[in-house]
Amino acid sequence: MIDIGRLCVKIAGRDAGKKCVIVDILDDNFVLIDGETRRRKCNIFHIEAFDQVLAIKKGASHDEVADALKKIGVEARKTKAKAKTVKPITLRRSKLATKAPAAAIPKKEEKPKAAPAKKPAVKTEAKPKKAITKKLAEKKEA
Amino acid sequence: MVEGKKKSRTFRRVYVKTPGGKTVLHYRRRKPAKAQCGNCGALLKGVPQARVYKMRNMPKTMKRPERPYGGVLCTRCMRAKIIQKARISS
User: Fold this and answer.
1) If contacts are CB pairs under 8 Å, which of residues 1-20 in chain A contact chain B?
2) Which domain holds residue B88?
3) What is the pLDDT of residues A75-110, one digit of tens each?
4) How many Cβ pairs closer than 8 A exist between chain A and B?
5) Which of the listed residues A13, A76, A142, B18 has the most CB atoms within 10 Å of its CB?
6) CB A16 to CB B82 under 8 A?
7) How many domains, in total, are found in chain A?
8) One domain, residues B84 and B41
9) Are residues B22 and B43 both part of a single domain?
10) Cross-chain Cβ contact A50/B86 below 8 Å
11) Strands, DSSP E only, in A11-124?
């Protein structure tokens, strides 16, 4: 019952109830299946074989299996390759200054630096000396 | 004194040690029964045994296995049903 091209149905796993075709015999216990299910290795005890045998070669591709299944009215699993999308990386302002290159940091417009305003010269008059009083003179003598 | 309704055996008695060092008695609700297969009555795996308020907050994938008839039939009954369906359709 386990031949290449044999139509089967999966009875275990999340693909249970879906039709598949034996593409290759790997072992005494394992076969390679494809069809409505994912293309993968499967235990013989997890599939139930039918009488029908499809005309496919050993190791047939998914497209060949899909064409063979279309003739009996079974639609094979379609998987679209997802287009690679580059996510925009957003950095915090604090990290931008340390990690990001100088080109990434938005340059602030430099204002022309004005010369510091000169303070008007303040004439400092010399402090008047304290007049020596009699008391001070007495202290000095002491 | 304890409320009359709490004396029922539908509540379970749990001894709780308080931060003050006292041991007090708390009354808590029991969990519901485990899920059974709709065909043969076998206990189902992958279905949590939790009260409604906890089940409601769980995601769908946590409440049943990801396969046809998951959470309804056991694996043995599920396989038999799928083989029966496939033979009828062919």
Assistant:
1) 9, 11-14, 16-17
2) 33-90
3) 888 877 777 888 888 888 877 666 555 555 555 656
4) 28
5) A76
6) yes
7) 1
8) yes
9) no
10) yes
11) 19-25, 30-35, 40-43, 47-53
